[in-house]
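stage 2 :: seqdesign
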């Protein structure tokens, strides 16, 4: 499919100006310090091995694609996921012979070529590849890579994402999906059939739109805030979806049978609230309190023992990455960096990659699990 905003490899290459520091919130009265030296050394060694592995997986056209999952083969969602994690790592960790600017140029050019005429990434094959997710990750990495024309590159993708929101003005007033985002569709959904709508996707979209310059007081963010609040459970934590409760992976209330919140969804809520400009509120306080009390490193807390218990370990990498970002932004439990680094480094494999033993959340794909591990290590080390 064509792109209405073509960009040449040379334009992207000459426009890349290096990495910009990513913003984080001031910490609360919690431990948000740097990792102690006894673990920072092994963590940096692990990062060097991970970047070596990830760069080795880049294809000649610049993309990163799965060799395990067919619909991920083109690299529509994996390329921005991998690239975003590599941009967090200082260039000194890159292997000898890797020229980062040239590699970034090829990757961004590949992503632009994958966009459709509306600015969406994820529709290049008959089976879509998480279009809202892929397009949002693309938006988020553009100001990090910082080509001179990045705002021009971002605009059509931002416009497409805004068109996918379930807004009151589009007939979704009072619906559980109002303010949120789903996977992304080729044709506009009409009430009342919202399809798959979730907090994880919504978090990624608002982060992407914020990175692209959407003001925190914009109406899409106001309605997104309402959707996030709708995901709050009675235990103060958050659920994945208020639209389809069967998707939620936590425990159920004994009496009403409603979903209780759990770790990964609570991290998504905190990061989404940060993106829409709600850094301080009872929602944030309750969510962070729950997270601090239930944080663990071996699995996604609040899932084990529930109806979808196998997802507790299947989402280990996703949870760790989310928790590390939350603790870096808001403050975490004392010594959180030490424990997280030890857990993550201990699971790195001989080739420098990470792979979850479970395929349930596709973390058995190293181009998914490794970026999660890299993000977690970067936050634990204070690398921005």
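stage 2 :: out
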């Amino acid at each position: 499919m064509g792109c209405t905003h073509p960009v040449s490899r040379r334009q992207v290459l000459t426009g890349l100006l290096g990495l910009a520091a990513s913003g984080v919130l001031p910490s609360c009265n919690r431990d948000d310090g740097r990792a102690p030296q006894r673990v920072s050394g092994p963590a940096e060694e692990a990062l060097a091995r991970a970047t070596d592995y990830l760069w080795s997986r880049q294809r000649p056209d610049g993309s990163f694609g799965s060799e395990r999952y067919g619909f991920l083969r083109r690299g529509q969602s994996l390329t921005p996921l991998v690239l975003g994690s590599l941009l967090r790592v200082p260039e000194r960790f890159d292997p000898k012979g890797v020229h980062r600017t040239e590699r970034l140029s090829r990757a961004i050019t590949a992503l632009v070529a994958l966009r459709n005429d509306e600015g969406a990434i994820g529709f290049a094959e008959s089976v879509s590849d998480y279009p809202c997710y892929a397009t949002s990750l693309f938006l988020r990495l553009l100001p990090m890579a910082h080509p001179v024309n990045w705002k021009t590159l971002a605009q059509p993708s931002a416009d497409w994402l805004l068109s996918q929101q379930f807004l009151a003005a589009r007939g979704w007033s009072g619906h559980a999906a109002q303010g949120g985002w789903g996977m992304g569709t080729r044709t506009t959904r009409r009430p009342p059939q919202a399809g798959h709508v979730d907090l994880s996707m919504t978090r990624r979209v608002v982060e992407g739109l914020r990175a692209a310059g959407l003001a925190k007081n914009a109406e899409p963010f106001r309605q997104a805030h309402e959707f996030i609040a709708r995901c709050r459970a009675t235990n103060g934590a958050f659920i994945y979806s208020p639209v389809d409760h069967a998707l939620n992976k936590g425990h159920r209330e004994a009496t009403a049978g409603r979903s209780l919140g759990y770790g990964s969804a609570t991290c998504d809520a905190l990061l989404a609230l940060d993106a829409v400009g709600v850094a301080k509120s009872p929602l944030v306080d309750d969510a962070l309190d729950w997270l601090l009390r239930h944080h663990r490193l071996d699995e996604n807390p609040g899932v084990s023992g529930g109806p979808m218990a196998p997802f507790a370990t299947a989402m280990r990498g996703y949870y760790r990455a989310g928790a590390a970002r939350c603790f870096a932004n808001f403050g975490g439990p004392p010594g959180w960096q030490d424990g997280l680094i030890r857990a993550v480094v201990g699971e790195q494999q001989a080739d420098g990659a990470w792979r979850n033993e479970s395929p349930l959340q596709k973390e058995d794909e190293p181009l998914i699990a490794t970026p999660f591990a890299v993000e977690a290590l970067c936050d634990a080390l204070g690398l921005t």
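stage 3 :: structure notes
- The CA atoms of residues 197 and 337 lie 33 Å apart.
- Strands lie at 181-182, 197-198.
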